[in-house]
Amino acid sequence: MQQFHVEMFTNKVNIRYFKILNELERKRSVSGANLSRATGATTRTLISDIAFLREYFGDSITITVTNCGYIFNEKNIGNYKKLKRELMADEPLFIIIRAIFKGELLTVGEWADKLYLSESSVIRFLKKLQKLVKTYNFKLGYQPVDFHGEECNIRKFFLLFFYEADIIPHTITPSLNIQNLICDFLKIYHEQLHLTLEFTKSAYILMIILERNKNGHVIKIPQLLKNKLKKFVDFSYLESFDKMLKSKSEITLPEDELFYIIFLALTNRQIEMSEFEKGIVENYSNEWIDKLTNEYCLKQKSLLTENFQFFVRSFFTTCYLQSMFSEIYIKNIPDINLYAIEHYTEQYQLNYRIIQNSDFRREIFSDEIVEDLTVNLTLYLNAVENTYVDDSKKIVFILEGNHHLCLNLKAAAKKYLGKNHQLYFLDYGYLNKEFLDNNEIDLVVTNYAEYITDCVLSIDYILTKAIPTTDDWNTVLEKVNPKINKVFSLVGRKCAMG
After folding, report:
1. What does residue 147 show for φ and ψ, rounded to 5 degrees?
2. Residues 285 and 374 both lie in one domain
């Protein structure tokens, strides 16, 4: 269960259980000391909690105790998720958030009666929710219990709660009618607007728009942002969608709601170098974005190519559009930030220093959003790098041993490395310094120690066991892509220490 939801738990035991599961899911192998530190539980409590979780989840998971700590594995993911949801079914704040969204507003006293709690307990729980929603720049009222503040920020919270975060028993899903409307809309949207919104995300956005409008909550788009949107997007396509919506559901949306859809679409683009993308950068960029882009690229010396500068400018332009509406639209759920900081630590830290210390950044983005902005930039540029940067390697394999084993190893190398890298399978007699230099070989892999000669020692090499193990293959994968074990858990790793 994501940290976003755990922050809303009121049951202290549930909080511990889900913190334990979060750590085990993320790391797979965790020492007892690290698990105690992450959960704030004593060793005795931790042992008791692990025993409960093993019994509760039964055959759907395994939690193995080793000298290194605990090793976690899901055996039946579907049943595991189902049991997790049941464990949180009675959490009061989830029930209250769902009711607020549906417009079913109750006073503190009425919630106390409904949830079989004292009013003081309800107030204590609501203060916890109050602290959370404050980070999204709106407040919680108590008489009745409802959200108060800018509608755009409240909708962002609902989108995170129902769509981006894990599905929970209280998640509301878009109706079949809404899904059909989105199917019709996306036909217009993809063909005419050249933008991309995921189907399910679009359905949740429309569900939130319709439900909030029904309950009297309408969005307000800043006039400056509306003027910018009008210059670049043919609004007639949204008007056509509104007419279709009215004909099929007898609902019509205010103009600002249509602009809201355009805003979400325009800030949800794919990574591409099309004329459309260039047009967005040209039309929406400004001098501060240009200055911030130039500053960033100068300090990130690896990103001095023209294409990378374009992508950096595109990123900051998109964030600028979001900030014109509300900086909350740059904000992530905590789990996304944790993922990026853990998996791309060095890149994140460098990006953070540049963004945090930039005077140009302060002209467009506040200090409160620096972490989220940095996380999004880190993830975005990694996606750009993986899409556009050619990091293929030239790899020589020299294999010896059982004929059928060598055939098997050669086929495995072709299957898992051949699509992205240039492979050479040589007999030792053909291996010499001239061949390595002329073909600009990056790596030699062999399972025969006698082949590690002076010419092989002059470049990168890997000596595997005579019959390569899982760890040998992991070493090869890490050598050709040093970032791979930061994102993926490679099979066969030893349990974590410390």
Report:
1. -85, 140
2. yes
Nearest to 330 by CA among 294, 300, 366, 276: 366
Q: Which domain holds residue 306?
A: 275-388
DSSP letter for each residue of 258-321: HHHHHHHHHTS--S---HHHHHHHHHH--HHHHHHHHHHHHHSGGG-SHHHHHHHHHHHHHHHH
Alpha-carbon span 486 to 344, nearest angstrom: 7
Cα gap 405→490, rounded to integer Å: 23
pLDDT tens for residues 99-132? 999 999 999 999 999 999 999 999 999 999 999 9
Residue 57 within a domain: yes
- The domain tally of the chain equals 5
Do 98 and 68 have their domain in common?
Answer: no
The number of C-alpha atoms within 13 Å of 429 and in the hemisphere containing its C-beta is: 0
Domain boundary among 356, 388, 420: 388
- Contact (Cβ atoms closer than 8 angstroms) between residue 204 and residue 174: yes
pTM for this one? 0.80
Asked whether residue 497 is assigned to any structural domain, the reply reads no
pLDDT (mean) for 43-71:
90
